[in-house]
Amino acid sequence: MPTALRVLLLAFGLAPVSLAPGTTSSIPSSITPAAVAARKTVAVLTFDNNTGKSDYDHLGKGMAAMMTTDLAAVNDIQLLERERLADVTKEIDQQRSRYFDSTTAVKVGRLSGAQYIVIGSIAAVDPQMRIDTRIIRVETGAIVKTANVTGKEEKFFDLQKKLARQLVKDLDIALTPEDEARLDARQEANRVDDLDAVVKLSNAMSMADAGDYGGATLKIAPVVAKYPNSTFVKITADEIKKRAAQSSKEKAKNGINTGINKLIKRKWPPAN
Questions:
Q1: What is the pLDDT of residues 215-268, one digit of tens each?
Q2: Are 44 and 133 in contact (CB under 8 A)?
């Protein structure tokens, strides 16, 4: 499987290489076990929507997924699966709120095994957009770095690219020329220049997470048509299709089991 495909699957909790419970990343054959052990384990949580625009309520999920795929190109970073993070947030009942404060982020980090948690927010004052991030060291609960980027909304993709690179720097990771080239290639492969397309993609992810695969498919269809060469878009669409197929199989299986149980009860009613 191509490296780009493996890393993008990571954003949906399906990366094929597992380094530790709940953590994944693609590992080049040149990386030694000692280097793997020295990696910094990072979890990127859904960004908060501070724009005041309800249309952007799910944008933070897409933003986190894009940041995850970017950071996974860096050998010294080990990313936690989105699926694992979803399980943890359910465990602490975070689903009742869209927002992650520092205290909640630390809880997520401790339960998931992350060393560092990245939380962030998106704010906008037309035509400008600002994206803020905070890196929290789980062991101490301290905010070790903050960063932000500001620019026009239509430059959202470039803002996200810039912020991803700043996060790498803030994690005290020095990129080699090879790392730089790999990160450049990863970000270009994921390119989606249109903010509206990113919003639709993010909404589709949320619909799929809620089990509305039909709605998710309809929502992402125009994005696939507009960005047929974006690896990130293609993998997102394929993942929605795969999860929809799995859901259909499970429903069919449950339906068969229910039918069998009803038949058994009719044929052999419980004794009085």
A1: 999 999 999 999 999 988 998 899 899 989 988 888 777 766 666 566 556 655
A2: no
Q: Which residues contact 25 (CB under 8 A, 6 or more apart)?
A: 7, 10, 15, 17, 19, 39, 72, 77, 78, 79
- Whether 118 and 44 have beta carbons less than 8 Å apart is answered as yes
Q: How far is CA 2 from CA 7, 28, 69, 191, 220, in A?
A: 9, 12, 14, 18, 23
User: How long is the chain?
Assistant: 272
Residues facing 126 on adjacent strands = none
70 with 177, same domain: the answer is yes
- Residue at which a domain ends, from 168, 191, 214: 191
Q: In three state form, how does the secondary structure of 21-80 look? A: CCEECCCCCCCCHHHHHCCEEEEECCCEECCCCHHHCCHHHHHHHHHHHHHCCCCCEEEE
- 114 and 183 in a single domain? The answer is yes
